[in-house]
């Protein structure tokens, strides 16, 4: 997971486009736009993170950094 890649997706893609990219990656197809990442797993991680962050920003009226912090907390909890 690379924060700059997630930030780029949040800043340049819409939520519907990210959802479409998620579906394309899951179906082993190429997304309509370039998704940063070394492999499909990392690309999917970046897309899922961007979707979570965009939703969180909209739902809680918060800035990217705050939503990113919430996402990383969620990841840390799931790893423990």
Mean pLDDT: 96
Number of domains: 1
* Overall helicity: over 70%
Distance between the termini: 17 Å
SS strand fraction: under 5%
* Whole-angstrom Rg: 12 Å
InterPro entries: DUF6952
Pfam family, one: DUF6952
Verbal overview:
The chain has 80 residues and is an all-alpha fold. The chain contains four helices and no strands. It is globular, with a radius of gyration of 12 Å. The mean pLDDT is 96. It holds the Pfam family DUF6952. InterPro entries: DUF6952.
SSE layout and pairings?
Layout: H1 3-12, H2 15-26, H3 40-60, H4 64-79
Helix pairs in contact: 1-3, 2-3, 3-4
Short description:
Helix content is about 75%, strand content about 0%. The chain is mainly alpha-helical.
Key words describing this protein structure:
80 residues; mainly alpha; 74% helix
